[in-house]
Design a protein that fits this description.
Elements (H helix, E strand, L loop, with lengths): L2 E4 L2 E4 L3 E2 L5 H14 L3 E3 L7 H9 L9 E6 L6 H15 L4 E6 L8 H13 L3 E7 L3 H9 L4 E7 L7 H9 L3 E5 L11 H10 L3 H10 L4 E3 L6 H8 L8 H8 L19
Parallel strand pairs: 3-4, 4-5, 5-6, 6-7, 7-8, 8-9, 9-10
Antiparallel strand pairs: 1-2
Length: 272
């Protein structure tokens, strides 16, 4: 398994996403993923499955410090009065004293960036999180985040071959911040794509595996594909035995011209 080195963190480049999984599903999939070799697990307060994820990790028979665990504070809990209690509740549900990474899930126009980043840094100082970061923050908001002096290690955003994230990726590279790709297969939209399919046929790989390989081959990029099917876990992990050529990468890079965004809720920020 490839690891991403950011600051003093070493993070498995491929993790398990748990978006849209029920508590029971998350418990089952997380347990199966850890058994399969996954050591990077991602959840969030709004997913309402932290308890399931926490149970699976606790019962896995793996030392807690061998699992890189991420959760995210939802936008409704960014107010100062709600922030820390929400993190403490997450830790109780996750059955752990700390998470490896605590993220701001979405910005909230009613809460100044400096206010919620102050709370995030305080959570880190309290030992609730080893590392901190943000999610769904375009470059304009990242400027505000970095102005607070926060030492963030990642921005978790939608990233796959069908969306153009060049501006954001370039900004993150310039600032030594990793990009964590959610919806890395565009929620299934990569399936049937002729370019990805053709490249995959050369290596005996699927469009999904080619997409994930394209992501983790990039400097400073991690991917957290979500699946509800246990048999897909091994497939998603089976991307470290081949390498895309420069020509393959160039072909895949052309797909971003369609700029298909699959996650865009009404409260989303102004994207780059």
């Amino acid at each position: 398994m490839k690891h991403i080195q950011i600051k003093d963190a070493s993070i498995p480049a491929l993790g398990l996403g748990t978006f849209q999984l029920s508590d029971d599903q998350a418990r089952e999939i997380t347990a199966a993923a850890i058994s399969e070799g996954y050591r990077h697990i991602d959840t969030a307060q709004i997913y309402q499955n932290e308890a399931g994820v926490g149970s699976a990790i606790k019962n896995a028979g793996i030392a807690r410090d061998k699992i890189f665990l991420t959760t995210k504070v939802f936008r409704e809990s960014l107010y100062k009065k709600d922030f820390m209690p929400s993190v403490e509740e997450s830790l109780r549900k996750l059955k752990t004293d700390y998470v490896d990474l605590l993220l701001i899930h979405w910005p909230n126009r009613n809460v100044p960036v400096a206010e919620y980043m102050d709370q995030l840094m305080e959570a880190q100082q309290k030992g609730y999180a080893k590392y901190i970061g943000v999610s769904n923050h375009p470059t304009a908001l990242l400027e505000e985040v970095l102005a607070t002096g926060a030492d963030i290690i990642t921005n978790q955003v939608e990233y796959h071959p069908l969306i153009n994230q060049t501006k954001l990726y370039t900004y993150l590279r310039e600032h030594g911040i990793s990009l964590t790709a959610y919806s890395p297969i565009a929620q299934g939209k990569v399936l049937g794509n002729p370019v990805l399919k053709g490249i995959g046929e050369k290596y005996g790989k699927s469009e999904v595996q080619v997409s994930l390989r394209w992501l983790i081959q990039q400097e400073g990029v991690m991917a957290i594909p979500r699946t509800s099917k246990v048999d897909r876990l091994a497939d998603n992990l089976n991307i470290f035995d081949f390498e895309l050529s420069a020509e393959d990468v160039s072909q895949i890079d052309q797909l971003k011209k369609d700029n298909q965004r699959v996650v865009n809720p009404p409260f989303a920020p102004d994207w780059d």
